[in-house]
Design a protein that fits this description.
Helix content is about 70%, strand content about 0%. With about 190 residues, it is an all-alpha fold. It has 2 domains: about 5-70; about 75-160, Fumarase/aspartase (C-terminal domain) (Ribonucleotide Reductase Protein R1, domain 1), CATH 1.10.40. This is Adenylosuccinate lyase.
Length: about 190
């Protein structure tokens, strides 16, 4: 497909990974009939299988490094996807806010279910944008929480402590493991195609 950026290299990684996973059958077959007796079929198989597995894994890692070095993140695409899905994700929070404001949970659930289904139909059947929030703002039933909607739709409120956990994991686990290899980590992956 012409619009894809890394199809050949990504497909190569996938294909080689399948091959690497299939290589486990050689030593399993050898072990199943060998009964821990060293025979020539053991050493011949090991010379082929181990070398091939390491070379394949190395090729996969080099290719993945080459792909990731050219990785481009499109924040506007991410924002659009979040805008499309976040209103649906926020429905439980909207229901809880309505209950705190004195609304009946069952009534609120039914009203938001109907509005969500209508908004989903616009997205799925008409290819339109998600208009669930506009529908909620237009419904007088939800007026007690209209002023809270912006806060309820803050994407960062859906990630919890993920950013702190990732940062802590990097600092306590990943960076210390990478430290001894800093001198070789600046190497660029070059592929000879």
């Amino acid at each position: 497909m012409p619009y894809k950026r890394n199809p050949m290299r990504s497909e190569r990684c996938c294909s080689l990974a399948r091959h690497l996973m299939a290589l486990i059958m050689d030593p399993l077959q050898t072990a199943s009939v060998q009964w821990f007796e060293r025979t020539l079929d053991d050493s011949a198989n090991r010379r082929i299988c181990l070398a091939e597995a390491f070379l394949t894994a190395d090729t996969i890692l080099n290719t993945l490094q080459n792909i990731s070095e050219g990785l481009v993140v499109y924040p506007k695409v991410i924002e659009r996807r979040i805008r499309q899905e976040l209103p649906f994700m926020a429905t439980e929070n909207i229901i809880m806010a309505m209950v705190k404001a004195g609304g009946n949970r069952q009534d609120c659930h039914e009203k938001i279910r109907v509005l969500s289904q209508q908004a989903a139909a616009v997205v799925k059947q008409e290819g339109g944008d998600n208009d669930l929030i506009e529908r909620i703002l237009a419904d007088a039933y939800f007026s007690p929480i209209h002023s809270q909607l912006e806060h309820l739709l803050d994407p960062s409120s859906f990630t919890g402590r993920a950013s702190q956990q990732v940062q802590r994991f990097l600092e306590e686990e990943v960076y210390p493991l990478l430290k001894p290899y800093e001198s070789v980590m600046k190497v660029k992956a070059e592929l000879c195609l």
